[in-house]
Amino acid sequence: MKYYSTNKNAPQVGLQEAVVKGLAPDNGLYMPEMIKKLPQSFFDNIGNMSFQEIAYTVADAFFGEDIEAGTLKSIVYDTLNFDTPVVHVKDNIYSLELFHGPTLAFKDVGGRFMARLLGYFIKKQGQKDVKVLVATSGDTGSAVANGFLGVGGIHVYVLYPKGKVSQIQECQFTTLGRNITAIEIDGTFDDCQALVKTAFLDDELNRKLNLTSANSINVARFLPQAFYYFHAYAQLAKLGKARNIVFSVPSGNFGNITAGLIAKRMGLPVKRFIAANNSNDIFYKYLQTGEYDPRPSVQTIANAMDVGNPSNFVRVLDLYNKSLDEIKKDISGKWYSDDNIKKTVKNTYDGTGYLLDPHGACGYQALKDELQSDETGVFLETAHPAKFLETVEGITGKPVAIPGKLQAFMKGEKQSIDMGKEFAGFKQFLLK
What we know:
Protein name: Threonine synthase
Largest sheet: 6 strands, mixed
Organism: Dysgonomonas termitidis
Strand order of the largest sheet: 3-4-12-9-10-11
Number of strands: 13
Pfam family, one: PALP
CATH class of the domain at 83-105 and 222-401: Alpha Beta
Cofactor: pyridoxal 5'-phosphate
Number of helices: 20
Enzyme class: lyase
């Protein structure tokens, strides 16, 4: 399959080039030239299939033309060595728990898949010393770093905003060493993302270095996130709850909801989506006014959503041919302040015993505010609450058990490089 740039000013490329390059030369994001509809027989049988079997069917629709079946199956099965269960919370609202992977966040799916696919292509090309650049507002860095840890021929540079990720999140990518370098940027996530994008457009860097990205701008990162939407549907189908499904998606860089929209285009029976924002409500305001007005992000307790200029917004526009009316048929928006988020975490815990993280709280509250009686609501619980330990314990007044996986990261020694947000300094660092 060919992949085109959302800016429509660059030649179409194959999967290998789209994955290895990450960003198109015209600064656009790659999109598949077609989105294949899956047959009805797949949906009729989906309740009897394992997560890995479901994911392989979806992956084959995207990547099957470019990767031999055995290799693709191995990548999918190795990626998904954990579950993404649907858990009932209250009434007709369910949590899709995406925190059962190695770094306890939803990005383990896309991060692990991309690490394996990129490793396969690099080995196939005989390349060495590939530099993977990734900007993180929290969970991307840990998922990507751990996905690529120890992969030969690849060095990962994780750029993160100083003082704006939780301590546990920081431990997950600053204590690894080996082929992982953490760079602490004196700025916001948007500054980190701008450094990565600018690097891909710099002629000298591209002549001298093999660069690629592991952010959701890379098709190998965001497309696999469609897997768990299908798995959620399968679980609800087994419960007889698969009619009129509404997915509420905590949204920052919009890769997650874009993957859900693509799942719907592939035939997944989804009624609609809710994009749940924190105080960085750029997309919410776009839905209200039709004006897209990116601005510097503000810091919130749902830090992974602190994005003022979502990269994947252009993919949403592309899917709907820039029609606001068509977008609004599939997506509504909500946004919540820190105070709203805190109330939701506390009230939900006190009332149901279910502990939300700040991001999942946005998704849950959006369903409470918008869900109709004949709909089944699923919110994406994108990270384990223990990753936001001080915040969550401060809200509930109760201790949060820290999973063993997180405790192991916390024992390591922080290794990071301080850097300003100016591109010239970052460029010189990469060249050295």
